[in-house]
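Open question from group meeting: does this chain pack into something compact, or does most of it stay loose? Before anyone orders reagents, we agreed to write out a predicted structure and look at it together. Recording both the input and the output here so the notebook holds the full record.
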Amino acid sequence: MAMNEVYSQTTAPHPESVRFTVPSNSLDSLRFVVKVCEVLLSLDVFLLVLIGSRYMCMGTVYLYLLISATTFFSTLVLLIFLSTKLHTRVDAVFCSYLDLCYTASAAPLFLIACIVFLIDYNKEMIVISAAACGFLTTVVFCVDVGLFLMFNDLPWKTDRTSEPGHGDSVEWDGPPGQETLTTPLLE
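Structure tokens returned:
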């Protein structure tokens, strides 16, 4: 008996088992690139502040480190969530609402952190580059919000009458107690 007959493949590969589903209803290709830029710029700001922290007052450095590290990790988790099939397990309105609220709140937080960081400004090149990257990150977050609003509807204004969700009532036109199943059990 040949080994191929005994040890044959028992499962068929699934072509839809791709890990990243970037062009999806939650994240298109352009916004995926913008989110990757947000992650990389936030990491860059975090590293520049760490390197340049010896030149500054520690209070402003801690604020800038907190904001840059938080936006880095949060954007990375959001990017992984939206670019994989994890977002299909959650309501699409919730994904859109989460993405819009997070991105719209990260932009002003980063701007405030940049301004506070520049108040304690000194003329070291590393501090100037950290502040410039911070402002660039703020611009990228604003561009992401603009792209979201340009190509998507507001999440709280979507039409949810197409299909009832969890906890929604289903309209029945027949007499009470006469609801039927979609397929009859006994004929």
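Observations to bring back to the group:
The longest helix spans residues 92-119.
The CA atoms of residues 4 and 160 lie 53 Å apart.
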